[in-house]
Automatic annotation (TrEMBL):
Signal peptide: none annotated. Gene3D superfamilies: Glycogen Phosphorylase B. It comes from Luteibacter jiangsuensis. This is Glycosyltransferase family 9 protein. PANTHER family: ADP-HEPTOSE--LPS HEPTOSYLTRANSFERASE 2, TETRAACYLDISACCHARIDE 4'-KINASE-RELATED. Keywords: Glycosyltransferase, Transferase. InterPro entries: Glyco_trans_9 (IPR002201), LPS_LOS_Heptosyltrfase (IPR051199). The keyword Lipoprotein does not apply.
Length: 358
């Protein structure tokens, strides 16, 4: 479907993205939209409405982002601070307001309150909150691609030609990457001082049913480490500050997501359950394999580059590790040939893999 009155680039200088959410993964999944807006409206300035403080760190490196408005979490418990920020945002009359969420009633309510010439979002029925309501069929499946599809639809682009979506990115500076590599080297250099040949990061935590058991990870790690004893393995420690792998490997902990991203960006391979830190690894540029067994792989899978999503189903940790090892062997072969790690598809009957590719 083509928008009846496309939003052209002329006269679009002040943009507001309305995505009030405090989760790391959902915030990082918004970065392709910001990249798309920067490329499409090159002379514009972008403000973002988020929730909590994490968005300031995520969008710190985006050149066109002016202001990140971080609403207080559970704003109804902080009504004065909440209302002050809403009134502050309303002072600006935006040329374009984007509500990228398919289902958030809160984001839609804020979009209606804020002042803008064009208001863009998903809706199958006419609504006074939007000047441009895209059918939900335009959204597609992947959470990171939906907002990009929305902007392209409103610009009059052919929906069937939606390809080459921008990747997740956190825009680390050269200094941040250098410091991350330094920290990584200190943690992964063997005792004899020889440089590590392959550095693998593991994040073994996730929320609720997405978390694999300690025993599952023990089987996974035993199989992985036995097959590659020369590899340096680093556990990325969760926010609660405790190892999920029984302190069997060196660990890195940081409450600062940019420092964590800098370390992740230096890994040759990052293996993680489906969670916000998985998306952080992708945004940092680490070749990432995300492990899924309850959430929809095609909605959240790491896409683009050398990333992959693996639907483990009911597979054991041992069988999942064997599948990952097949992917690693091709990665190591390509790395020796090109010095660039590549994750390539290897089929196995015990697990289902999705790349989320274009």
């Amino acid at each position: 479907m083509i928008a009846p009155d496309p939003i052209v680039g002329h006269g679009i200088y002040r943009i507001l993205v309305c995505r009030p959410n405090h989760r790391l993964g959902n915030t990082l999944l918004l970065t392709p939209l910001i990249t798309e807006l920067q490329a499409r409206y090159k002379g514009a300035e972008i403000d973002i409405v988020s929730e909590g403080d994490i968005a300031r760190d995520v969008f710190k490196g985006f050149f066109s982002v002016r202001q990140v408005f971080c609403l207080p979490r559970r704003g109804f418990k902080h009504p004065i601070a909440f209302l002050r920020m809403i009134l502050r945002i309303r002072r600006t009359h935006y040329d374009l307001i984007v509500d990228p969420s398919v289902h958030s009633g809160f984001a839609r309510a804020l979009t209606r309150i804020f002042r803008g010439r064009y208001k863009l979002g998903f809706s199958d029925a006419p609504t006074k909150a939007l000047t441009h309501a895209a059918p939900r069929t335009v959204a597609g499946r992947h959470m990171g691609k939906r907002p990009v599809n929305l902007v392209r639809w409103a610009s009059g682009d052919d929906v069937s030609a939606f390809r080459n979506h921008p990747p997740l990115v956190i825009h680390l500076s050269e200094d941040e990457r250098a410091e991350g590599l330094e920290a990584l080297a200190a943690l992964t250099t063997p005792g004899h001082g020889a440089p590590s040949t392959f550095r693998i990061g593991i994040f073994a935590n996730a929320t609720g049913a997405k978390r694999y058991s300690t025993e599952w990870w023990a089987d996974f790690m035993a199989t992985l480490s036995a097959a590659h004893p020369a590899a340096s393995i680093l556990e990325i420690i969760p926010a609660h500050g405790h190892s999920m792998l029984r302190e069997a490997w060196p660990g890195y902990y940081s409450s600062d997501i940019r420092r964590m991203a800098a370390v992740l960006g230096g890994l040759d391979l990052f293996i993680t359950a489906d969670c916000g830190v998985m998306h952080l690894g992708v945004a940092a540029g680490a070749p990432t394999i995300g492990l899924f067994h309850v959430t929809a792989t095609d909605v959240y899978t790491p896409y683009g580059g050398h990333n992959a999503g693996l639907d483990t189903g009911t597979c054991s940790g041992r069988d999942t590790a064997r599948h990952v090892l097949g992917m690693m062997e091709i990665s190591l072969s390509n790395r020796r040939a090109t010095s660039d790690p590549v994750i390539t598809d290897v089929r196995a009957p015990t697990a289902r893999r999705s790349t989320g590719s274009e």
